[in-house]
Design goal:
By secondary structure, the chain is an alpha+beta fold. It has helices at residues 22-29, 32-47, 50-56, 93-111, 118-128, 142-145, 156-182, 194-214, 222-230, 242-251, 258-270, 272-276, 282-304, 306-318, and strands at 59-62, 77-81, 87-91, 347-355, 358-369, 372-378, 384-391, 394-401, 404-412, 418-425, 433-439. It has 14 helices and eleven strands.
Length: 441
């Protein structure tokens, strides 16, 4: 179950993502663009050199309700040059609102000691499930499905953290696009080599960080932004072959790669003094910048790890709305009613799940009614279901996780405290690997 699934190479949400009604977007269109224009005019532009201002004088900021490049939502931020030579930085209101809601959710979850992985899991669900699988044939909006309270905007501490995450991320994104404009980078396509693409992204990132350093603007939201983006962005291991991945990179407006993340992390670590110098507690601010750099560097390894990337697909497919509700750190995302644990094959267990590539910790919850058993399992990559029957002292079961399925067999120790078994794919009950678990209830 760790690395044996065959991935679907389509990305269902790419052409269908619609999280908000037009009325809500029109409301935010009257607020957010004005805030960003003021941020540019009052903070960013004065920090530019005279030459930089001259080279960016003709660049306009554009805020369509929805992204003209449909597949770019919910990360619709790019530079476009019209046939008349007019250059625009495009930021869709829908993408700005989606990131704002996810940043708000992250702030509330963090400050209330809840697990903060559900916003990323939500994005994986959007990417790898289809809208028609949800009530009304549309994807659920972030705040409601993540269980964020309706009065969250009235909580000052949450709003303060949200402001740091959201604003610093948007400053970086806006400066990155202005960096493309400053250096007059061409768009992407078959005529632009991957080497040139990587160079352009690095140059735009370098400009963004340089101006943020001039402003002593702590990049505290960047790790959140890139963590979310990493759960949305197609990765090499999401494609059947290298040629398919290369074709995607040639068309992508901002391909997210491990190399790019490592360069960003190194630049942040090198200039942590500059970003922290305006903070009242310099040492603490410097430590926070270093932590952001470390987290972005960790994400680079995340992008290169095939098991993790394939796991994101499995997570997205297996995630349902009930799994996204707030839960405390370490709490199992399983809604169940386990009967009194006293017989074999019932109760809550924890252990390890193994296949040829290694092992992962697993949590298992089983209910038993006579000889019939049903339950749930998770090892951090979605929520699987298990159903079976006890025959001759052994539990013969079938399992499903998203679109994947198989069979397996469990044996229980005489006291029912331990389970040992095998699992397999499709019709096999043992070609996948083994697992063992110990009662934890």
């Amino acid at each position: 179950m760790l690395g044996a699934w065959l991935l679907l190479m389509a990305f269902p949400a790419a052409a269908q993502l619609r999280l908000y009604d037009d009325d809500l977007l029109n409301h935010w269109a009257a607020i957010t663009p004005a805030d960003i224009r003021a941020l540019y005019a009052e903070d960013i532009r004065p920090a530019l050199s005279a030459e930089e201002r001259r080279r960016l004088d003709d660049v306009e900021l554009a805020f369509p309700l929805r992204c003209p490049l449909i597949a770019s939502e919910p990360f619709c931020y790019y530079l476009v040059t019209s046939s008349e030579g007019q250059r625009r930085v495009v930021m869709s209101v829908a993408s700005l609102r989606a990131f704002g809601d996810l940043a708000l959710a992250m702030a509330w979850l963090q400050l209330t000691d809840h697990a903060i992985d559900t916003p990323s899991q939500y994005l994986a669900m959007l990417r790898h499930r289809r809208a028609e699988e949800f009530p009304g044939g549309r994807y659920p909006a972030p705040l409601a499905v993540l269980g964020i309270p309706e009065d969250v905007r009235e909580q000052p501490e949450v709003m303060a953290l949200y402001g740091k995450i959201y604003t610093s991320s948007l400053v970086f994104v806006l400066l990155h696009e202005l960096g493309h404009a400053l250096h007059r980078h061409p768009g992407y396509g078959p005529e632009v080599s991957r080497e040139q693409t990587r160079h352009n992204e690095a140059e735009a990132d370098a400009f963004a960080l340089e101006v943020m350093a001039r402003l002593a603007y702590p990049p505290l939201g960047m790790s959140v932004f890139f963590t979310l983006m990493a759960h949305w962005e197609p990765n090499r291991w999401h494609f059947t072959d290298e040629a398919s991945h290369r074709a995607y990179l040639e068309a992508a407006t901002h391909p997210l790669t491990a190399e790019r993340l490592r360069q960003l992390a190194a630049a942040l670590a090198e200039r942590d003094d500059d970003f922290a110098r305006a903070e009242p507690d310099f040492a603490a601010a410097r430590a926070r910048v270093a932590a952001v750099a470390t987290e972005i560097d960790r994400l680079a390894g995340f992008m290169d790890d095939r098991d993790i990337q394939e796991g994101i697909v499995r997570t997205g497919r297996a995630t349902g709305e009930a799994m996204l509700k707030p839960r405390k750190v370490g709490e199992l995302a399983i809604e169940h009613s386990v009967s009194a644990a006293g017989r074999p094959f019932e109760g809550e267990f924890e252990g390890v799940l193994r296949d040829s590539s290694g092992e992962l910790p697993v949590l298992l919850a089983l209910e038993r009614h006579g000889d019939l058993v049903q339950g749930f399992f998770t090892y951090g990559l979605g929520l699987g279901q298990l159903r079976g029957e006890v025959r001759d002292g052994r539990l013969h079961y079938g399992w499903t996780l998203g679109a994947d399925q198989g069979q397996g067999v469990f044996e229980a120790s005489p006291d029912g405290q331990r389970l040992d078994g095998t699992w397999g794919l499709e019709r096999s009950s043992d070609d996948g690997g083994t697992w063992e678990a110990w009662r934890s209830d």
